Amino acid sequence: MKRVMVGCVGAFFAVSMFADVVLFDAATTFANVIHAQHQATLKLSDGVLHVKTPKSQAYPGACIRGNWDLTGCNIVEVELDQAYGGSWPMRLRMLNPGGNAGTRKDAYVNVFRTDGKKTVFANLLPPRMAEWDKIVKKLTVVRTWALPFAVFPSFDSSDVEWARKISFSTLDPSKVTEVAVYYSAPLEPHEFGIRRIVAKSGKSVKVAEFARKTVDEFFPFIDCYGQFKWKEWPDKVHTDTDLQKMREKEAADLAAHPGPKGWNKYGGWLGGPQLTATGAFRVEKVNGKWWMVDPEGRLWWSHGPVRVTPSSAITPLDRHEDWFESLPATDSPFAKFYTTRDELLWPYYVKRNIQRTYDFSAANICRKYGEKWFEAYADISHRRLLSWGCNTIANSSDKRICLMDRTPYIDRFELKSRPLIDKGGWWPFRDPFDPSFRQNVRDNMKEHKAEMDDPWCFGFFVDNELRWGDEGDLARWALMGPADLCAKREFRNRLQAKYGQIDALNRTWWNGEKVYADWDAFLSVSKVPGKAADSDLHDFACEIAEAYYRGIREEFKKFAPNKLYMGCRYAGGAKDFVLRAAAKYCDVISFNRYAREISGFKLPAGIDKPVIIGEFHFGALDRGPFCPGLILLKDQNERAAVYKQYVRSALENPIIVGVHWHQYSDQATSGRFDGENMQVGWTDVCDTPYWETIQAIREIGYPMYEIRWQAK
Fold first, then answer.
1. Distance from C-alpha of 577 to C-alpha of 541, rounded to nearest angstrom
2. Could you say which DSSP state residue 13 is in?
3. What is the Cα–Cα distance from 335 to 247, expressed in whole angstroms?
4. What is the largest CA-CA distance in the chain?
5. Where are the domains of the chain?
6. pLDDT 10s digits, 469-521
7. How many CA atoms lie within 13 A of 703 on its CB side?
8. Contact between 363 and 313 (Cβ < 8 Å)
9. Pick from 370, 376, 486, 493: nearest CA to 437
């Protein structure tokens, strides 16, 4: 194949046209070079590679191996067999020999969403600059979710604008040996079909100026306010004077928008029916729709952000202080922000042995509001939420702000009792049969006594995004545990009551093989049986789920009978048996649901229970941060439009009693403890509101009660 030289012309790389490079064609590619990855299943038929991916914490999808020279290509076209919807993003990966996407070695990864299109495009980064490899090496000494790769290149063509996703590339395009299309840790199963994957030359690629910097010129790339130095955007802060201008601008905005009319002090609906006032929040079904009811007996629908805290942008400094332009000296008034902490998240820093951090967001708030910065920030947070059409401070927020009793709030705590299995999720799943389980619930309740006694606190989540596994996995994990694991002993007792003799269990589970010598020996064996045991495993998994929810509810209600037990915030979805156990014991079932809208969201047949959305968000790449969160949108205007779409769909859904945005302010541009650095705030790292989003929040928040009441 004839190749042409690629030259730099001004701010553009001009790419001459040449023949397409077919990386995959379902009609002609040999099956022996096609491989499934991470439990995906593949079927090649009728000119389509059919791919099924499970819910997974890995990267299920299809991988094609070969040898390709993509020098000069700048677009990869993925032709699907049909247009697919869905919001969970797909990924395109390419590797050189020995490449590794996880370590960003000789690799390219691009994130894209099909967005109802049959043909999608992913941009290949332009030829690497003279010192870009050195820059990449310094950028990857610590993990972040996205790096400055995400802010270049941008395509002028609207046809490929949607393909401009989070991407990185350390790839040598002349030596590509693998291409893969897959999902990253999908929260639900997916099916899709691929016809062709073709690398092409397309329109010239506009490259940001910073991409041509040397390593010495590029670093440091985070300014004294925690912003990306090498890009401009509306309302970017360059001086402390800019912070004061933003403060004045917002003061005028808040004065012009004092909040919705017709709300009581809790944000309940005065225009709706007067129900019984109990002095506490509760849930009730009214005219076929689930509602919350506030202490004064008014219909109440929860609308607000997670993590109302001045410390949203704490970032680790270990091993990469050269990223930062101007960290304060130890004798500076701003040195105190080396030691400010976020109460909920700080244990994650400790767990990872992170030694040094800096709190950019709190430092900026201090610059903006002066000596009594926290008091001013707490006050304006309450005023903002009312002005924006919100009535909730959601979980993981600063307790000092919550306890001011100006906005209703919810909190959460995580159990730290003995694990059933010590891996997966934010925290391990706990053994609900262990005495430490209920004791830990009691201990947590005591630690949160001030909130439990506060009528402005409407409830608590207990745990977060737990790993429940597939059908029967809870029981399998119990079998894998040590002999003194309480859940394993409980399982043994139930099996003994059912089977009587150990030989009967051996016959059923092991086809007569004497795996267990007696019932005591059962405890010392960690071997997991096959399908013959599925019924018993399922039954005990149900018992574990029941014990988990029952134990929490009983202890919770003993301590705080008037507070709502709001579940454990499922990561997307949950198995039927888990939901049925939750429905028996939770006042409200909670899900973290990342999507563009949730009009079709429902619970399994036979479960009639209110639902709250504990997290949702969307982001874009047209401002400073490099990562848009879990759902990428084109720009801030579209983020505003989709916000209204999501909340309206929840208001019109009869089982949903509230939605909580994740999160109030952006994460650190340079990443938090786990590398998350998302543009998902209602305010940025300098405490400046994203005005497009704020307008949308008001447009849906002010009339939210009328919308829900009138929805059919």
1. 8
2. E
3. 23
4. 82
5. 7-218, 240-407+593-710, 473-543
6. 888 999 999 999 999 999 999 999 999 999 999 999 999 999 999 999 999 99
7. 10
8. no
9. 486
| Token couple for 86 | 């869905």
441: tokens are 């619930």
DSSP per-residue codes, 408-477: -EEEEE---S-EEES-SSSSPEE-TTSHHHHHHHHHHHHHTHHHHT-TTEEEEEES-S----STTHHHHH
What local confidence, expressed as pLDDT, does residue 137 receive? 83
Distance CA 156, CA 159 (A): 9
Q: How far apart are CA 325 and CA 225, in angstroms?
A: 9
Q: Report residue 646 as tokens.
A: 């999501």
Give 395's contacts (C-beta < 8 A, 6+ positions apart). 306, 307, 410, 411, 412, 461, 614, 660
Measured in degrees and rounded to the nearest 5, phi and psi for residue 700 equal: -100, -25
Q: What is the DSSP letter of 687?
A: S
CA distances from 57 to 53, 284, 480, 542 (A): 11, 36, 20, 22
Q: Which amino acid is at 312?
A: S
Q: pLDDT tens, 587-605? A: 999 999 999 999 999 999 9
Kindly write down the DSSP assignment for every residue of 360-421, as one continuous string: HHHHHHHHHH-TTHHHHHHHHHHHHHHHHT---B-SS--HHHHTTSSS-EEEEE---S-EEE
Q: How far is 492 from 497, CA to CA, in rounded Å?
A: 9
Q: Do 663 and 352 contact (CB within 8 A), yes or no? A: no
Round to whole Å and give the CA distance between 62 and 594: 24
User: Domain 7-218 in CATH: superfamily?
Assistant: Galactose-binding lectin (2.60.120.430)
Radius of gyration of the chain (CA): 27
Q: DSSP letter at 678?
A: B
Q: What percent of the chain has pLDDT over 90?
A: 75
pLDDT band for position 425 (cuts 50, 70, 90): low
Please calculate the CA angle 628-633-637 and round it to the nearest 5 degrees: 110
CATH for 240-407+593-710 (2.60.40.740, 3.20.20.80, 3.30.1330.60, 3.40.50.300): 3.20.20.80
For tokens 């690799």, the residue is 107
Q: What confidence tens digit (pLDDT) does each residue in 134-180 have?
A: 887 888 889 888 777 544 433 333 333 333 445 667 788 899 999 99
Which residue, among 662, 691, 695, has the nearest Cα to 679 in the 3D structure?
662
State how far the Cα of 429 lies from the Cα of 421, in Å rounded to an integer: 6
Query: How far, in Å, CA of 463 to CA of 549, rounded?
Result: 11
Q: Which residues have C-beta within 8 Å of that of residue 333, sequence separation ≥ 6? A: none
Residue 462: closest CA among 357, 570, 381: 570
DSSP 333: G
> Rounded to whole angstroms, how far apart are CA atoms 193 and 82?
7
Looking at every residue in the chain, the average pLDDT score rounds to: 90
Q: Are strands 105-112 and 90-100 parallel, antiparallel or unpaired?
A: antiparallel
Q: How many helices (H) and strands (E) does the chain have?
A: 19, 30
7-218 matches 240-407+593-710 in fold: no
